[in-house]
Design the sequence.
Protein backbone atom coordinates (compact mmCIF):
# COMPACT_ATOMS: atom_id res chain seq x y z
CA UNK A 1 0.00 0.00 0.00
CA UNK A 2 1.47 3.38 -1.04
CA UNK A 3 1.81 5.87 1.89
CA UNK A 4 0.60 9.38 1.15
CA UNK A 5 3.36 11.97 1.27
CA UNK A 6 3.53 14.33 4.25
CA UNK A 7 3.41 17.21 1.77
CA UNK A 8 0.18 16.06 0.09
CA UNK A 9 -3.05 16.37 2.05
CA UNK A 10 -5.12 13.20 2.28
CA UNK A 11 -8.86 13.55 1.82
CA UNK A 12 -10.93 13.00 4.95
CA UNK A 13 -14.64 13.13 5.73
CA UNK A 14 -16.37 14.71 8.71
CA UNK A 15 -18.61 12.03 10.22
CA UNK A 16 -19.85 13.95 13.27
CA UNK A 17 -19.82 17.51 14.58
CA UNK A 18 -20.34 18.35 18.25
CA UNK A 19 -20.73 21.91 19.54
CA UNK A 20 -18.67 22.14 22.75
CA UNK A 21 -19.13 25.87 23.34
CA UNK A 22 -20.37 28.79 21.21
CA UNK A 23 -16.95 29.07 19.56
CA UNK A 24 -15.57 25.53 19.84
CA UNK A 25 -16.58 22.38 17.98
CA UNK A 26 -15.24 18.84 18.01
CA UNK A 27 -15.14 17.10 14.64
CA UNK A 28 -15.00 13.32 14.30
CA UNK A 29 -13.22 12.49 11.07
CA UNK A 30 -12.33 9.47 8.96
CA UNK A 31 -9.85 9.29 6.10
CA UNK A 32 -11.67 8.60 2.84
CA UNK A 33 -9.00 5.96 2.15
CA UNK A 34 -10.13 3.41 4.77
CA UNK A 35 -6.73 1.62 4.59
CA UNK A 36 -5.08 4.86 5.67
CA UNK A 37 -7.59 5.16 8.51
CA UNK A 38 -6.78 1.58 9.59
CA UNK A 39 -3.05 2.34 9.67
CA UNK A 40 -3.54 5.67 11.43
CA UNK A 41 -1.89 6.03 14.82
CA UNK A 42 -0.41 8.95 16.73
CA UNK A 43 1.47 9.89 19.87
CA UNK A 44 -0.60 12.20 22.15
CA UNK A 45 0.39 15.85 21.66
CA UNK A 46 0.99 15.53 17.91
CA UNK A 47 -0.88 17.68 15.41
CA UNK A 48 -2.25 17.56 11.88
CA UNK A 49 -2.10 20.23 9.18
CA UNK A 50 -5.78 20.67 8.29
CA UNK A 51 -6.87 22.09 4.91
CA UNK A 52 -10.23 23.81 4.73
CA UNK A 53 -10.67 23.96 0.98
CA UNK A 54 -10.83 27.48 -0.43
CA UNK A 55 -9.58 29.03 2.84
CA UNK A 56 -6.19 27.59 3.80
CA UNK A 57 -4.31 25.19 6.03
CA UNK A 58 -3.74 25.31 9.79
CA UNK A 59 -2.11 23.19 12.52
CA UNK A 60 -4.62 21.45 14.83
CA UNK A 61 -3.82 18.99 17.62
CA UNK A 62 -5.42 15.59 17.73
CA UNK A 63 -7.93 15.57 20.59
CA UNK A 64 -9.13 11.95 20.51
CA UNK A 65 -7.82 8.91 22.31
CA UNK A 66 -4.69 7.44 20.67
CA UNK A 67 -6.16 4.02 21.53
CA UNK A 68 -9.14 4.64 19.23
CA UNK A 69 -8.06 4.50 15.60
CA UNK A 70 -11.27 3.91 13.59
CA UNK A 71 -11.71 7.69 13.52
CA UNK A 72 -9.93 10.75 14.88
CA UNK A 73 -11.09 13.96 16.52
CA UNK A 74 -10.09 17.59 16.20
CA UNK A 75 -11.39 20.25 18.60
CA UNK A 76 -11.30 23.68 17.02
CA UNK A 77 -11.85 27.17 18.39
CA UNK A 78 -12.96 29.92 16.02
CA UNK A 79 -10.38 32.72 16.07
CA UNK A 80 -10.05 33.82 12.42
CA UNK A 81 -10.60 33.06 8.76
CA UNK A 82 -9.76 29.33 8.51
CA UNK A 83 -11.19 28.32 11.87
CA UNK A 84 -14.41 30.22 11.05
CA UNK A 85 -14.69 28.35 7.73
CA UNK A 86 -14.02 25.04 9.52
CA UNK A 87 -16.76 25.66 12.06
CA UNK A 88 -19.30 26.06 9.22
CA UNK A 89 -18.57 22.51 7.97
CA UNK A 90 -21.15 19.76 8.47
CA UNK A 91 -21.30 15.97 8.54
CA UNK A 92 -20.32 14.65 5.10
CA UNK A 93 -18.06 17.61 4.21
CA UNK A 94 -14.47 16.89 3.19
CA UNK A 95 -11.22 18.36 4.46
CA UNK A 96 -7.53 17.63 3.79
CA UNK A 97 -5.13 16.26 6.40
CA UNK A 98 -1.32 16.09 6.48
CA UNK A 99 0.62 14.51 9.28
CA UNK A 100 0.63 13.69 12.18
CA UNK A 101 3.55 16.03 12.84
CA UNK A 102 5.77 17.02 15.74
CA UNK A 103 6.86 15.44 18.99
CA UNK A 104 4.20 14.48 21.47
CA UNK A 105 4.27 13.51 25.14
CA UNK A 106 6.65 10.59 25.80
CA UNK A 107 3.96 8.62 27.63
CA UNK A 108 6.03 5.42 27.82
CA UNK A 109 8.57 7.27 30.00
CA UNK A 110 5.81 8.18 32.48
CA UNK A 111 5.16 4.53 33.44
CA UNK A 112 5.13 3.90 37.21
CA UNK A 113 5.20 7.66 37.84
CA UNK A 114 2.60 10.03 39.29
CA UNK A 115 1.33 12.34 36.58
CA UNK A 116 0.00 15.85 37.15
CA UNK A 117 -1.98 17.20 34.18
CA UNK A 118 -2.50 20.96 34.07
CA UNK A 119 -4.63 22.64 31.48
CA UNK A 120 -6.28 25.95 30.68
CA UNK A 121 -9.06 26.77 28.19
CA UNK A 122 -8.83 24.83 24.93
CA UNK A 123 -5.49 23.40 26.05
CA UNK A 124 -7.67 20.47 27.12
CA UNK A 125 -7.88 19.45 23.44
CA UNK A 126 -4.22 18.40 23.04
CA UNK A 127 -4.09 17.18 26.66
CA UNK A 128 -7.11 14.87 26.32
CA UNK A 129 -5.25 12.15 24.31
CA UNK A 130 -2.50 11.98 26.98
CA UNK A 131 -5.06 11.62 29.76
CA UNK A 132 -6.84 8.91 27.77
CA UNK A 133 -3.57 7.08 27.06
CA UNK A 134 -2.69 7.05 30.76
CA UNK A 135 -6.15 6.72 32.39
CA UNK A 136 -7.04 3.78 30.15
CA UNK A 137 -3.90 1.95 31.37
CA UNK A 138 -4.34 3.11 34.97
CA UNK A 139 -2.48 0.17 36.53
CA UNK A 140 0.79 1.07 34.74
CA UNK A 141 0.99 4.54 36.35
CA UNK A 142 1.02 6.09 39.83
CA UNK A 143 -1.38 8.74 41.16
CA UNK A 144 -2.98 10.99 38.56
CA UNK A 145 -4.29 14.53 39.06
CA UNK A 146 -5.90 16.90 36.58
CA UNK A 147 -6.01 20.63 37.31
CA UNK A 148 -8.16 22.37 34.71
CA UNK A 149 -9.19 26.03 34.55
CA UNK A 150 -11.46 27.98 32.22
CA UNK A 151 -12.98 31.46 31.95
CA UNK A 152 -16.35 30.20 33.17
CA UNK A 153 -18.21 26.92 33.48
CA UNK A 154 -19.68 27.20 29.94
CA UNK A 155 -16.13 27.04 28.58
CA UNK A 156 -15.20 23.73 30.23
CA UNK A 157 -14.51 21.20 27.47
CA UNK A 158 -15.23 17.45 27.47
CA UNK A 159 -17.56 17.53 30.48
CA UNK A 160 -18.43 13.82 30.04
CA UNK A 161 -14.74 12.88 30.17
CA UNK A 162 -14.20 15.07 33.23
CA UNK A 163 -17.05 13.27 34.98
CA UNK A 164 -15.73 9.83 33.98
CA UNK A 165 -12.14 10.65 34.97
CA UNK A 166 -13.40 12.06 38.28
CA UNK A 167 -14.86 8.63 39.04
CA UNK A 168 -11.69 6.77 38.02
CA UNK A 169 -9.66 5.27 40.83
CA UNK A 170 -6.57 7.29 41.75
CA UNK A 171 -7.44 10.06 39.29
CA UNK A 172 -8.31 13.32 41.04
CA UNK A 173 -9.99 16.02 38.93
CA UNK A 174 -9.90 19.61 40.20
CA UNK A 175 -11.68 22.33 38.26
CA UNK A 176 -11.67 26.09 38.53
CA UNK A 177 -13.21 29.05 36.70
CA UNK A 178 -11.94 32.61 36.43
CA UNK A 179 -15.41 34.15 36.61
CA UNK A 180 -17.78 32.63 39.12
CA UNK A 181 -21.46 32.42 38.31
CA UNK A 182 -24.23 31.53 40.82
CA UNK A 183 -24.54 28.00 39.35
CA UNK A 184 -20.82 27.25 39.89
CA UNK A 185 -20.11 25.58 43.23
CA UNK A 186 -16.42 24.85 42.62
CA UNK A 187 -13.19 26.80 42.95
CA UNK A 188 -12.82 30.34 41.58
CA UNK A 189 -9.56 31.80 40.33
CA UNK A 190 -6.76 30.89 37.93
CA UNK A 191 -5.60 27.29 37.65
CA UNK A 192 -2.63 28.00 39.96
CA UNK A 193 -5.09 28.47 42.87
CA UNK A 194 -5.77 24.71 42.65
CA UNK A 195 -2.20 24.02 43.83
CA UNK A 196 -3.42 24.87 47.36
CA UNK A 197 -6.41 22.53 47.13
CA UNK A 198 -4.52 19.26 46.81
CA UNK A 199 -1.18 17.73 47.70
CA UNK A 200 1.38 18.48 45.00
CA UNK A 201 4.37 16.24 45.56
CA UNK A 202 7.28 16.24 43.07
CA UNK A 203 8.60 12.81 44.15
CA UNK A 204 8.54 10.36 41.24
CA UNK A 205 6.23 12.77 39.41
CA UNK A 206 5.81 14.26 35.96
CA UNK A 207 3.82 17.38 35.02
CA UNK A 208 2.14 17.73 31.61
CA UNK A 209 0.92 21.24 30.77
CA UNK A 210 -1.11 22.63 27.89
CA UNK A 211 -2.62 26.08 28.01
CA UNK A 212 -2.19 29.70 26.97
CA UNK A 213 1.27 31.31 27.36
CA UNK A 214 0.31 33.33 30.44
CA UNK A 215 -0.94 30.19 32.18
CA UNK A 216 2.22 28.29 31.28
CA UNK A 217 4.37 31.08 32.75
CA UNK A 218 2.61 31.01 36.13
CA UNK A 219 2.21 27.22 36.24
CA UNK A 220 5.96 26.74 35.66
CA UNK A 221 6.66 29.15 38.55
CA UNK A 222 4.26 27.25 40.80
CA UNK A 223 5.74 23.87 39.88
CA UNK A 224 9.24 25.14 40.70
CA UNK A 225 7.94 26.46 44.03
CA UNK A 226 6.64 22.94 44.75
CA UNK A 227 10.02 21.38 44.00
CA UNK A 228 9.56 20.12 40.41
CA UNK A 229 12.80 20.02 38.41
CA UNK A 230 12.92 21.00 34.70
CA UNK A 231 13.35 17.35 33.65
CA UNK A 232 10.02 16.46 35.28
CA UNK A 233 8.03 18.97 33.21
CA UNK A 234 6.55 18.66 29.71
CA UNK A 235 4.53 21.43 28.03
CA UNK A 236 3.04 21.95 24.60
CA UNK A 237 3.76 25.27 22.87
CA UNK A 238 1.52 26.54 20.08
CA UNK A 239 3.51 28.79 17.80
CA UNK A 240 2.44 30.32 14.48
CA UNK A 241 3.51 27.77 11.88
CA UNK A 242 2.92 27.04 8.23
CA UNK A 243 4.71 24.00 6.82
CA UNK A 244 4.71 21.72 9.87
CA UNK A 245 8.01 20.19 8.69
CA UNK A 246 10.78 22.55 9.85
CA UNK A 247 11.18 24.23 6.46
CA UNK A 248 9.47 27.63 6.74
CA UNK A 249 11.02 28.67 10.12
CA UNK A 250 7.86 30.49 11.26
CA UNK A 251 7.76 28.58 14.54
CA UNK A 252 11.43 29.02 15.48
CA UNK A 253 11.91 29.60 19.19
CA UNK A 254 15.35 29.81 20.80
CA UNK A 255 16.90 27.73 18.00
CA UNK A 256 14.19 25.05 18.08
CA UNK A 257 11.28 24.54 15.71
CA UNK A 258 7.94 24.08 17.48
CA UNK A 259 6.73 21.92 14.57
CA UNK A 260 9.49 19.29 14.60
CA UNK A 261 11.28 19.68 17.96
CA UNK A 262 7.89 20.27 19.66
CA UNK A 263 5.12 21.22 20.10
CA UNK A 264 5.75 19.25 23.30
CA UNK A 265 8.99 20.35 24.98
CA UNK A 266 10.73 19.16 28.10
CA UNK A 267 11.29 21.72 30.90
CA UNK A 268 15.04 21.69 30.21
CA UNK A 269 14.35 23.20 26.74
CA UNK A 270 11.54 25.43 28.05
CA UNK A 271 13.94 26.99 30.57
CA UNK A 272 16.01 28.35 27.63
CA UNK A 273 12.99 29.82 25.82
CA UNK A 274 11.59 33.35 26.10
CA UNK A 275 8.04 32.45 27.21
CA UNK A 276 5.47 35.24 27.21
CA UNK A 277 4.10 36.48 30.51
CA UNK A 278 0.92 38.04 29.09
C1 LIG B 1 0.90 22.80 17.08
C2 LIG B 1 -0.39 23.56 17.10
C3 LIG B 1 -1.55 22.93 17.51
C4 LIG B 1 -2.77 23.63 17.51
N1 LIG B 1 -3.87 22.98 17.93
C5 LIG B 1 -5.05 23.62 17.92
C6 LIG B 1 -6.23 22.93 18.30
O1 LIG B 1 -6.22 21.74 18.66
N2 LIG B 1 -7.40 23.62 18.26
C7 LIG B 1 -7.46 24.95 17.86
O2 LIG B 1 -8.55 25.52 17.85
N3 LIG B 1 -6.35 25.61 17.51
C8 LIG B 1 -5.16 24.99 17.52
N4 LIG B 1 -4.04 25.66 17.13
C9 LIG B 1 -4.14 27.08 16.73
C10 LIG B 1 -4.67 27.13 15.29
O3 LIG B 1 -3.69 26.64 14.41
C11 LIG B 1 -4.97 28.59 14.93
O4 LIG B 1 -6.02 29.06 15.75
C12 LIG B 1 -5.39 28.72 13.47
O5 LIG B 1 -4.27 28.49 12.63
C13 LIG B 1 -5.91 30.12 13.21
O6 LIG B 1 -6.23 30.24 11.85
P1 LIG B 1 -7.32 31.30 11.39
O7 LIG B 1 -7.16 31.51 9.92
O8 LIG B 1 -8.68 30.92 11.87
O9 LIG B 1 -6.92 32.59 12.19
P2 LIG B 1 -6.10 33.83 11.63
O10 LIG B 1 -7.08 34.68 10.88
O11 LIG B 1 -4.85 33.40 10.96
O12 LIG B 1 -5.70 34.49 13.00
C14 LIG B 1 -6.66 34.92 13.95
C15 LIG B 1 -5.97 35.12 15.27
O13 LIG B 1 -5.48 33.86 15.77
C16 LIG B 1 -4.08 33.93 16.04
N5 LIG B 1 -3.42 32.69 15.65
C17 LIG B 1 -3.26 32.23 14.40
N6 LIG B 1 -2.55 31.08 14.41
C18 LIG B 1 -2.25 30.83 15.70
C19 LIG B 1 -1.49 29.83 16.36
N7 LIG B 1 -0.86 28.86 15.71
N8 LIG B 1 -1.39 29.89 17.70
C20 LIG B 1 -1.96 30.88 18.39
N9 LIG B 1 -2.67 31.88 17.81
C21 LIG B 1 -2.80 31.86 16.50
C22 LIG B 1 -3.58 35.09 15.17
O14 LIG B 1 -2.41 35.65 15.71
C23 LIG B 1 -4.74 36.05 15.20
O15 LIG B 1 -4.74 36.83 16.37
C24 LIG B 1 -2.82 25.00 17.11
C25 LIG B 1 -1.65 25.63 16.71
C26 LIG B 1 -0.45 24.93 16.71
C27 LIG B 1 0.79 25.62 16.26
Sequence:
Amino acid sequence: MKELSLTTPALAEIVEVREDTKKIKTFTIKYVDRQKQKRFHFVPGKFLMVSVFGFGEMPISLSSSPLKTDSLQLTIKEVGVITHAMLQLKKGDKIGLRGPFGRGFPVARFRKKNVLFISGGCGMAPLRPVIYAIADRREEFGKLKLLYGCQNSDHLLFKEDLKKWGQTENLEVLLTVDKCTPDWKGNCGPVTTLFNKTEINPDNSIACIVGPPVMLHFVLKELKKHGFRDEQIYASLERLMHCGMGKCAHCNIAGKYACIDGPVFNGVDLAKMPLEEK
